Each structure stands twice: as C-alpha cells, then as structure tokens.
Predict the structure.
Amino acid sequence: MKNYKLLAIAFLTSLLLFMVGCTENTEMKAQDENIQTIETVLQNALTGPDDELKEIFNSEESSIEDLLQYDKAHFEDYFANETSYREFVNNNNGSGILIEAMKYDYNFKVKNIEYEKTESEEIIYDFTLELQYQKEGSESSEVETVTGQANLNKEHKIEDMLIRIGDFLGSLSN
C-alpha cells in the first residue's frame, strides 16, 4: 500500500512540475513575440534614415502619399488596428523622427535595448535604449538614452506606444 501512495505522490509531483514548465514556456514565448514586435518598430523608427526615406524626402517628385506608404510598409503590420497605427505615426513617431534627423544631416542607430514587463495585468513593457547618432561626414558619434512604453494585446500587436525622445531632436540643430 505504501508503494502505491509513494507512486501516486511521485506521479502528481511530476505532473505538477510538467504543467508549471509548460506554462512558463508559453509565457516566455509570448514575451519573446511581444519583445520582437516592439524591437522591430523601434528599429524602423530610430535607425536610419535609409536610402528609400532619403529619396522620398529629397525628391521634388515625391508626395505626402509616398511618405504615407513608407510609414504603412514599415509600421502598420505591428499595430493592433488602424487607430493605434495612425496615433503612432501622427504623433511624429513613424518616419517623423528620422525626418528630423535628415533635416540636420544626422544618422541614427539603435543600440542595446532593455525591456521590462510591468506588474500590470495588461501587457505593458517599459524600454530603454541607447540611440547612437552621428553627423554625416563626421568620424565621431554620441549616444542618447531614449525611454518609452509599449502596450500590446494578446496577438502581440501594439495598442499604444510612446517613445520619449524629449528635447533631443531639437538639440540636433545646435
């Protein structure tokens, strides 16, 4: 009889450990997908400007429609819906940050992004990144710290995203 009790306890313990392991793996996979979404948007918004954006910005034949298509191609798929996408690009995120960089002949490159999931019941991540910036033709570069927050849904799409770049863009003209 004792053997059956020991066997039952061992089986239930193993089953419990297996279930906890599966839950953790599912949570880790979801977290990885969320971080991948956030990182892609940050890379697209803060690394560049690329040749395509430079051509749109500098060409006399380009229109606002070309810029809208650029933003759509680089950002729309990562947002939960049209409203969240439009809110992001209309708040001068999207290509707006890189356009400011072009105005003053700077290139940006995202370095070292750190993520922290908040304690909220919602899927919210705070992030901090190092933004390397370099004046075209210069040998030296500098680094600015940029922070922000991204709220995602269960489908790993961004519902709201804030990039806190502060007065940094205005200081590029100095």
In short: The chain has a mean pLDDT of 88. Strands lie at 106-117, 123-135, 142-152, 158-164. Residues 2-46 form the longest helix (45 residues). The chain has one domain: 33-172.
